[in-house]
Amino acid sequence: MQSITIRRPDDWHLHLRDGAMLEGVIADTSRTFARAIIMPNLVPPVVTTADAKAYRERILKVLPDGHRFQPLMTLYLTEHTSPDDVEEGKYSGLITAVKLYPAGATTNSHGGVRDMEKAMPVLERMAKIGLPLCVHGEVTTPEVDIFDREAVFIETVLDPLRRRLPELKVTMEHVTTSDGVDYIKAAKGNLAGSITTHHLIINRNAILVGGIRPHYYCLPVAKRENHRLALRAAAVSGDARFFLGTDSAPHVDPLKECGCGCAGIYTSVNTMSCLAHVFEQESALERLEAFVSLNGPAWYGLQPNEERITLSRQAEPVVFPARIETGAGPVTVFDPMFPLHWQVVQQA
Fold first, then answer.
1. Is residue 288 pLDDT above 80, yes or no?
2. For the domain that residue 93 is a member of, what is the CATH number?
3. 80-115 burial by CB neighbour count: b if 16+ within 10 A, else e?
4. What string of DSSP letters covers 245-305?
5. Cα 248 from chain centre
6. Cα(193)–Cα(175) distance, rounded to whole angstroms?
7. Residues designated as active site
């Protein structure tokens, strides 16, 4: 296959940041993706519907001329979140989901939930009104090994929550383990998972072999090769419970390349080329559209995009920038460590 035309894709997990960084990265998403679920872990976080409305306006203000892009807003769940405000946001059409960050799990998560019991009034209201909960599925207790955080979260937090509130719709974001894949597959309903571009391509060796390479460090951290292969199998299977959420997360290089570097990989520039490569390797190009364009909208109760994009296989490798320049500073672009031959040649 030398070209493929699919419905315009969506990104169901995206970090745009704010200010100069937002202005510097927005076009890398909006030139290809029609919609994206926007993460709320700003400083300060997006905790109320009013915060989300203001953030959405800031995003749309810096959207390049001619780009058609819809930011889907989320709220940052805290132990003090108002159920009434969440319900108002949902019925206003502004709020697509609420995000659970266990306190300390990732970038700007220190204000997240420490005691799930204190968040139950909001979660019960969400279950009642049908508003999805997006979860960063890791525990943060120091005695749990960082590579086991997802599996322990499923056992000690997520499964008890879903048994208590079976009607609550839950998205396990950036699934990184076979444990997560198997748990989603075994669920009888109300559970799905997003998978990132980079977790389909790298395992933990990318971070550590040959020296510490900070631009492959993310949270949840990349796991063993058997987990990467389980994610690939899920992504290319066509199973409607799995869809793309890039978790593309820009940090300026000085904050990545330092004694205590930030977690995050910036993939918005070349995600579609990387995914076409992965699906071609797995002899599953005909299922790429389901993963990037169909499964996510179905899960979130939206219609798939009518616009199309075309990817073409180039004879010579496609050249992407090693980094982009933003008003906040340089941001290194994800390097998949193999040549990319697929390119988006016709945008929506």
1. yes
2. 3.20.20.140
3. ebbbebbbebbeeebbbbbbbbbeebbbbbebbbee
4. ---B----HHHHSSTTPPP-BB-TTTHHHHHHHHHHHTT-GGGHHIIIIIHHHHHHT-PPP
5. 7
6. 6
7. 247
Angle of helix 49-61 relative to helix 19-30, nearest 10 degrees, comes to: 70
pTM more than 0.85: yes
Find out whether 149 is annotated in a ligand binding site: no
The first and second tokens of residue 117, run together, are 């019991």
Residue 34, annotated as binding a ligand: no
Q: How many domains does the chain have?
A: 1
Task: Summarize the confidence of residues 127-156 as an average pLDDT.
Answer: 96
Q: Confirm whether residue 99 is marked as ligand binding.
A: yes
**Is 80 annotated for ligand binding?**
no
pLDDT of residue 347: 75
Q: Which helix (H) or strand (E) holds 184?
A: helix 178-186
86, 95 in Cβ contact below 8 A?
yes
Which one-letter amino acid corresponds to residue 137? G
* Cβ contact 232:282 at 8 Å: yes
Query: Average per-residue pLDDT in the chain?
Result: 96
For residue 246, list its beta bridge partners: none
- The rounded distance, in Å, linking the Cα atoms of 37 and 6 is 20
The edge-to-edge listing of strands for the beta sheet with 11-14 is: 11-14, 35-38, 70-76, 95-100, 133-135, 170-172, 191-195, 242-244
Under 8 Å CB-to-CB from 258, ≥6 apart: which residues? none
Q: Give the CA distances from residue 244 to residues 85, 100, 176, in Å, rounded to whole numbers and listed in that order.
A: 29, 19, 13
The bridge status of strand 242-244 relative to strand 308-313 is unpaired
On whether the CB atoms of residues 134 and 171 are closer than 8 A, the answer is yes
Domain residues for 29?
3-347
Cα separation of 161 and 156, whole Å? Answer: 9
* Helix 49-61 with 83-91: angle, nearest 10 deg: 40
Is 164 labelled as part of a ligand binding site?
no
Residues 6 or more apart from 239 whose CB is under 8 A from it? 185, 295
Instruction: Kindly state the helix (H) or strand (E) to which residue 323 belongs, with its residue range.
Output: strand 323-326
Any known ligand binding at 287?
no
Count CA atoms within 13 Å of residue 257 on its CB side. Answer: 7
Question: What pLDDT is stored for residue 105 in this prediction?
Answer: 63
